[in-house]
Amino acid sequence: MRKTLIMGLGGAGMNIASRVKQELGCDILAVNTNADTLAASPFNQRLQIGASCCEGKAAKSVQRGRLAAEESLEDLRYSIRGADHLILLTGLGGGTATGASTVIIDLALEMGIKVTLVATLPFEFENAQRAAAMDVLPQLEQKNIRIILHDHAKALEPGKALLDYYNKASAAIAQDVENLLAE
């Protein structure tokens, strides 16, 4: 039987993973640089990455997110060992997940693990975050993995609260994960 590992990476990825856990009841590995966010999370499996380079705080840049994953490469290797399929839940907002995703994907592929990336893209008005996501997206697309994107900018409707978009995207991602688990 195939073993699928679901990872919520970074702050947004952990928020998405919380919804997936709530709806599907599945085990999820939460990975983040922010020690406080991890400690307050509902997940049993947690991994703090980049303890030295991020000092337990949010990465806040793609470069620091990448450095955090590189610093914690052996811990990540240990955490994903034994999986046949990694479902990586992220928000590509310019921090931990945006930087660490490529490192984690490369590691998983090196270990013979199939990877599916399920990610949200920032709104158009989130200029710096969207630019960071658009910079890393071509790198992710070259990884020979399955990518499922939820673009907040394309879903934007006048007069709708931002929280509605986040909830709608999280619900759609929970459905994506349910479909992936059924394959």
Describe this structure in words.
By secondary structure, this protein is an alpha/beta fold. The protein has one domain: Rossmann fold, CATH 3.40.50.1440. The protein contains 9 helices and 6 strands, in the order E-H-E-H-E-H-H-H-E-H-E-H-E-H-H. The chain has a 6-stranded parallel sheet with strand order 3-2-1-4-5-6, sandwiched between helices. It is globular. The model has no long low-confidence stretch (mean pLDDT 94).
Q: What's the quick description here?
A:
This protein is of the alpha/beta class. The chain contains 9 helices and 6 strands.
Spell out the key features of this protein:
53% helix; 6 strands; 6-stranded parallel β-sheet; 183 residues; Rossmann fold; alpha/beta; single chain
List the helices and strands and how they pair.
Elements: E1 4-9, H1 10-24, E2 29-32, H2 35-39, E3 45-48, H3 51-54, H4 62-71, H5 73-80, E4 85-91, H6 96-110, E5 114-121, H7 127-141, E6 146-151, H8 152-155, H9 162-182
Helix pairs in contact: 1-9, 4-6, 5-6, 6-7
Number of domains: 1
Count of extended strands: 6
Number of helices: 9
Between the first and last Cα atoms, what is the distance in angstroms?
Answer: 12 Å
For the biggest sheet, the summary is: 6 strands, parallel
If you consult CATH, what is the topology?
A: Rossmann fold
Percent in strands = 15-25%
Q: Based on CA inertia axes, which overall geometry fits?
A: globular
CATH architecture grouping: 3-Layer(aba) Sandwich
Structural class: alpha/beta
CATH level 1 class label: Alpha Beta
Whole-angstrom Rg: 15 Å
| Poorly predicted tracts of residues | none
Strands of the biggest beta sheet: in what spatial order? Answer: 3-2-1-4-5-6
Oligomer: single chain
Mean pLDDT over all positions: 94
Order of helices and strands: EHEHEHHHEHEHEHH
User: How much helix is in the residues?
Assistant: 40-55%
The CATH superfamily label reads Tubulin/FtsZ, GTPase domain
